[in-house]
Amino acid sequence: MSPKSETQEENIPEVVNLVDSQAEKIEADLVRTSRSYVGSLTSEEAELHQAVAMNINARDLSAGTSVLAVSQSVTASMNGSLVLAARAERMDLKNSLAGGIYTDSAVLADGSQTGILVSSRVSGEQIRSVFLVARQVEGPVETMLDTRQVAVASVLAGVACGLVILLGRVFFRNKK
Questions:
Q1: Which of 44, 63, 151, 156 has the maximum number of C-beta atoms within 10 A of its C-beta?
Q2: Which H helix or E strand runs over 10?
Q3: Are the C-beta atoms of residues 111 and 96 closer than 8 Å to each other?
């Protein structure tokens, strides 16, 4: 190892506890946050409670009543949380909302919902997702849109795009 990397490892704290605070960047072995904001978090283990985090990279992630923008972890457990995009080998959601998830194994419990869920294996009491792509599903699946709603939404989106293009040409045409 170079002297620079040894110095960097020595400066990384083992445990960081953040309460009623905000930090732009945290690197530690264990990070615990409560009622706090974190811009970027890198750790082996992260526990968030009533927190907001923008970018999380942790081996083990636990979030309770928190909002996460982007997370990447080996295992993730969310309870009453909102996550926009997540990647994990195993993800457990309980009373949570997720925008997009890519995982090897997902468990959805107690009314959890996802926008896009891509997984090898999904299980749950009630699996609710707008788009679900899975090799193996264990449990009842409820999609947010049925075939008729998808067709109507597609037609309306096409009409809206056509109107925007038409209006753009009318109002912004080059006069020669």
A1: 63
A2: helix 3-11
A3: no
